[in-house]
């Protein structure tokens, strides 16, 4: 059996991956709640958050251009800070946060399908079927994933855009409310909502773990992330402004399903059904991407001995099926035990997201270290203005960590769970590196070694690398 991933993903499936993971059911809620809190001025927080995520995208794009492998952040960290930090970046930043977020998304899909289309079927059965189907699609191969992702993301984005345009132009069946809104009543305080707006764009880098399956990774990866951010900003801006045209701000700010209320106000029952379909597709695209990208991180880590060897197995369709089954099982377990339906799920997700921010800081630090440690290595994409965007990005992320939730009591619980997640990850990673890998925690892997194992890295690049960086290796 071939133990290498194959390059079959084009540009638009890569864009669909970048967009599909970001525009989730929870992101639609955050979007309309944000406009409910700040009114039209929420776009200021959105742009600030988009820029921070753009800086993240620039860092990931540069790192991926140097090491275009399926390991993602782990492989970028091996030459800079070693296997211990690499494992922490993946386990805490992706596996932990998304075993809560992914199962929560499936829970939402089950409820929406039950309430809108299948009232006689229990929501849990629907959620389980949803996850199993997407798991099977990913096991079947990357071609099935890419086509399903394009359909899910395409329908979702076009629908959100269409509902927003109908609302802005007043061509729907609903009646706009009679009110006038100042652009920004919060002044500079609106920037305090950047942490909320951050979730509208987070996850754009999920295209990077598919670097070994994208046809032109050094071109398509940065382009797909930047294109994805722009698409999300435009579509969210249109839908958010349509929402505040039809629903009072207080209603949007306090509702559990503000996007549903907005769509219903714009198009009546048709809008309710339509946004129900959008919610299902948003959930589908998110879980689909999670089941594609995270297993590929685990697959590549297994190749480096950082995970059990079974995660490195590919089936006849070239999919890391053991890792896919593992992530699918985690989603199902959390669905069945009911964690995703509890009132604490938002706290769990934000605690995991705190760890996600730690991973973003690691990504920025990787770029900074690479610039000094390997200044002459070939980069087909380079973040502009030196390390300016990395420094600003780190500062912005730290600011959001301290402003992760407005309620002080909830914030304390978020920090408590985040510390637990990080401690568990640190202990596991340290034990694995020390006793399973039998190496030093911070022993770095020479970049040359990573590049020589890259499937399609040219001999010319290797020779050039050795010549220009021989003093660093």
From TrEMBL:
<keyword id="KW-0812">Transmembrane</keyword>
<dbReference type="InterPro" id="IPR050367">
    <property type="entry name" value="APC_superfamily"/>
</dbReference>
<protein>
    <submittedName>
        <fullName>APC family permease</fullName>
    </submittedName>
</protein>
<dbReference type="InterPro" id="IPR002293">
    <property type="entry name" value="AA/rel_permease1"/>
</dbReference>
<keyword id="KW-1133">Transmembrane helix</keyword>
<feature type="transmembrane region" description="Helical">
    <location>
        <begin position="37"/>
        <end position="60"/>
    </location>
</feature>
<feature type="transmembrane region" description="Helical">
    <location>
        <begin position="151"/>
        <end position="168"/>
    </location>
</feature>
<keyword id="KW-1003">Cell membrane</keyword>
<feature type="transmembrane region" description="Helical">
    <location>
        <begin position="320"/>
        <end position="339"/>
    </location>
</feature>
<feature type="transmembrane region" description="Helical">
    <location>
        <begin position="81"/>
        <end position="101"/>
    </location>
</feature>
<feature type="transmembrane region" description="Helical">
    <location>
        <begin position="12"/>
        <end position="31"/>
    </location>
</feature>
<feature type="transmembrane region" description="Helical">
    <location>
        <begin position="345"/>
        <end position="369"/>
    </location>
</feature>
<feature type="transmembrane region" description="Helical">
    <location>
        <begin position="188"/>
        <end position="207"/>
    </location>
</feature>
<feature type="transmembrane region" description="Helical">
    <location>
        <begin position="381"/>
        <end position="402"/>
    </location>
</feature>
<keyword id="KW-0472">Membrane</keyword>
<feature type="transmembrane region" description="Helical">
    <location>
        <begin position="219"/>
        <end position="239"/>
    </location>
</feature>
<feature type="transmembrane region" description="Helical">
    <location>
        <begin position="121"/>
        <end position="139"/>
    </location>
</feature>
<feature type="transmembrane region" description="Helical">
    <location>
        <begin position="414"/>
        <end position="433"/>
    </location>
</feature>
<feature type="transmembrane region" description="Helical">
    <location>
        <begin position="273"/>
        <end position="299"/>
    </location>
</feature>
<dbReference type="Pfam" id="PF13520">
    <property type="entry name" value="AA_permease_2"/>
</dbReference>
């Amino acid at each position: 059996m071939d133990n290498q991933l194959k390059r079959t993903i084009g540009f638009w499936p890569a864009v669909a991956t970048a967009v599909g993971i970001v525009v989730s059911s929870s992101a639609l809620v955050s979007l309309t709640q944000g406009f409910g809190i700040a009114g039209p001025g929420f776009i200021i927080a959105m742009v600030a958050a988009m820029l921070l995520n753009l800086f993240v995208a620039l860092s990931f794009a540069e790192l991926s251009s140097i090491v275009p492998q399926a390991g993602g952040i782990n492989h970028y960290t091996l030459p800079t800070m070693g296997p211990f930090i690499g494992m922490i970046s993946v386990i805490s930043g992706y596996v932990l946060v998304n075993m809560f977020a992914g199962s929560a998304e499936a829970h939402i899909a089950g409820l929406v399908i039950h309430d809108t289309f299948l009232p006689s079927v229990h929501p849990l059965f629907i959620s389980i079927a949803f996850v199993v189907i997407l798991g099977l699609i990913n096991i079947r191969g990357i071609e099935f994933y890419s086509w399903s992702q394009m359909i899910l993301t395409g329908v979702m984005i076009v629908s959100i855009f269409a509902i927003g345009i109908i609302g802005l132009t007043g061509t729907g069946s609903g009646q706009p409310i009679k009110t006038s809104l100042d652009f920004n009543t919060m002044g500079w305080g609106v920037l305090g909502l950047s942490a909320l707006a951050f979730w509208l764009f987070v996850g754009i880098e999920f295209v990077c773990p598919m670097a070994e399956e994208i046809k032109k990774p050094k071109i398509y990866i940065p382009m797909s992330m930047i294109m994805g951010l722009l698409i999300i900003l435009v579509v969210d801006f249109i839908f958010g402004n349509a929402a505040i045209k039809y629903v009072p701000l207080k209603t949007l700010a306090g509702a559990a399903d503000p996007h549903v209320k907005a769509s219903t106000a714009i198009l009546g029952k048709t809008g309710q059904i339509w946004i129900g379909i959008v919610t299902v597709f948003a959930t589908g695209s998110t879980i689909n991407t999670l089941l594609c990208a995270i297993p590929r991180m685990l697959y590549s880590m297994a190749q480096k001995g950082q995970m059990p060897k079974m995660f490195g197995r590919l089936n006849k369709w070239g999919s890391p099926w053991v890792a896919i089954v593992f992530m699918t099982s985690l989603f199902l377990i959390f669905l069945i035990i009911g964690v995703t339906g509890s009132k604490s799920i938002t706290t769990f997700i934000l605690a995991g997201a705190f760890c996600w921010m730690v991973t973003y800081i690691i990504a920025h630090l990787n770029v900074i270290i690479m610039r000094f440690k390997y200044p002459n290595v070939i980069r087909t994409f380079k973040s502009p203005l030196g390390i300016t965007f990395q420094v600003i990005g780190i500062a912005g992320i730290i600011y959001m960590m301290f402003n992760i939730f407005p309620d002080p009591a909830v914030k304390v619980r978020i920090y408590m769970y985040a510390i637990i997640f990080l401690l568990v990850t640190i202990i596991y990673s340290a034990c694995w590196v020390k006793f399973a890998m039998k190496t030093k925690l911070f022993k770095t892997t020479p970049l040359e070694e990573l590049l020589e194992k890259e499937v399609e890295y040219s001999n010319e690049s290797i020779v050039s690398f050795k010549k220009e960086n021989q003093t660093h290796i």
